[in-house]
Amino acid sequence: MEDLLTLARLDERRVAANRPVDLLHLAYDAASDAHATAPDRSVVVRGLHDSTPEEAWVHGDESKLRQVVANLLTNALRYTPAGSPLELAVGLEPAVDGEFTAVLQVRDHGPGIHGQDAERVFERFYRADSSRTRETGGTGLGLSIVAAVIDQHDGSVKLTETEGGGATFTVRIPHTKPVDSTPDDA
C-alpha cells in the first residue's frame, strides 16, 4: 500500500524540498545498510570505471534519492544468489552540453534480466519472476518508483548487462556543484 501511495504522490509531481545531494554519500550509506542486512555479501563502492569513487552532486530530494538507491540495492540482494557480490559505482560523465552528468550504478553478478523482462522491468506491477508473490517478492512497484523519482529529477535510469553477467542499473541526473558555505572574501 505504501508503494502505491508513493507512486500517486510522484504522479502528482509535487514540488519537493530539493537541495544539493551527493550520490557518493548515498552509495556509502546504502552499502553500509546492505552489510548490516546481508553480512554474507560483498558490497563495495567504486568509481565508474574501476577508479576511485568521486563526489557526484545533484540538486534533488535526498529522501527520494535514498529510496532509489535502496530499491535498486534491495532488488539486487533479493534476486541474486546468496553470496554474490554487489557494486555501487559513482562518478561524473561528460554531458553533450559541456556540463557533467552525475552517475550512480548498482551492479550485480547474478543471472541478469533479459528479453521481454528487461524491456518491461520499469512498468508498474511487473515482476520478472512470476513465481514470486507479494509475500515472497514484493509489489512489483520498486523499479517503477525508481523511474518516477529519477524522472522528477530530470534524469534517466537504464538497465544493461553487467560485464561478465548480471544486471546493471544506471541512474543519470544532471550534475550540480554544491553550494559553497564559506563567505566570499570580496
From TrEMBL:
Its EC number is 2.7.13.3. The keyword DNA-binding does not apply. It catalyses: ATP + protein L-histidine = ADP + protein N-phospho-L-histidine. Keywords: Kinase, Phosphoprotein, Transferase, Two-component regulatory system. Residues 1-177 form the Histidine kinase domain. Pfam families: HATPase_c. The lineage of its organism: Bacteria, Bacillati, Actinomycetota, Actinomycetes, Micrococcales. SUPFAM superfamilies: ATPase domain of HSP90 chaperone/DNA topoisomerase II/histidine kinase. PANTHER family: HYBRID SIGNAL TRANSDUCTION HISTIDINE KINASE C, TWO-COMPONENT HISTIDINE KINASE. InterPro entries: HATPase_C_sf, HATPase_dom, His_kinase_dom, Sig_transdc_His_kin-like_C. GO terms for molecular function: phosphorelay sensor kinase activity. SMART domains: HATPase_c (SM00387). The gene is tcrY_1. This is histidine kinase. Gene3D superfamilies: Histidine kinase-like ATPase, C-terminal domain (3.30.565.10).
